[in-house]
Amino acid sequence: MKRYLCNVLLAGCSLFTLATFAAKNAGWMAPVVKDTTAMPPLTWKEHWFEHAQVMRRVFSNSSVTVYYDKETPESITWPDTLLTKVWNYTTKTYGAFGKDNRLFVLLHTGKYGGGHPSTYFDGSHDYRNVIDVGHEGDWVSNTGWNLDAAVHEVGHIVEGAAKGVHGSPAFPIWKDSKWMEIYQYDVYRALGWDAEAQRWFDTQMKNTDNFPRPGTQWFKNWFYPVYHQYGGAKVLNNFFTILAANFPRNGNGYTRDMNWGEFIHFWSGAAGVNLKPQATIAFGWPASWEEEFLQAQKEFPGVKY
Predict the structure, then answer these.
(1) Quick one: CA dihedral 89, 94, 99, 105, positive or negative?
(2) What pLDDT was estimated at residue 177?
(3) Omega prior to 225 cis, within 30 of 0
(4) Cβ(252)–Cβ(23) under 8 Å?
(5) Is residue 109 within 8 Å of 67, Cβ to Cβ?
(6) How do 64-68 and 115-118 pair as beta strands?
(7) Radius of gyration over alpha carbons of the chain, in Å?
(8) What's the whole-model pTM score?
(9) pLDDT averaged over every residue in the chain
(10) DSSP code of 51?
(11) pLDDT confidence band for 80 (50 / 70 / 90)
(12) Which of 97, 220, 242, 277 has its CA 20 to 30 A from that of 45?
């Protein structure tokens, strides 16, 4: 098992799981999917990484079950309502995540200082859709880092298990938090959380990264223009739909990562228009990408635009 941890600043939550998002090992066996539709237990003993807490169930409905460690007071109730709304919107937009289709939220106070996700494909977390987040401070506030950290991890469940397929072939390209930036903006906007959406938008429009080249502005020059011009949540969902229908897989698991040409090809399919000009603005266009792009068009003719 590989382990990566979302840090406190949400600058490097590089995911973990058993061959999940980087999907480096082509030909790995497709994961087992188990039925977890029974009523969630009153307690849940963690058994991953350094986590060994007995978590207590503090809330449960048909969509979300929330567990706290002993340091997190039950008087904090905002995750119940807010994360139910987030998960219900997410499953409405991207489809179900397993037969149970429930989100398990595990929150820690005064430890870990970051979070990680798991999906219903992963035995490591008992085949549940999980966000497990630790806070060096407290969970009293329902905005800022507290909200962003939780929703961020939900977005990783989407990229790692959307459309009933395990893995994220695009993860080595967008790495951590680039897909999450547009996912979170869409969630806040769709739920009518205008102040949160504006706060998030203003922050992401200023962000720069050093990949694929120094000074890249993923949100400003790629994800937001694609989102804004080609259907909002529809184009985000289209990407995963087209990916599941066309990209190499072994049963319910992807077998390899995408290259840059394939990445632009599949997003073009999602948008219904050739996105090479937008990609050139956002990332540049090396000669190797042109070769990959043309090859992707030949190899995946079902992706049309």
Answers:
(1) negative
(2) 85
(3) no
(4) no
(5) no
(6) unpaired
(7) 19
(8) 0.90
(9) 90
(10) B
(11) very high
(12) 97
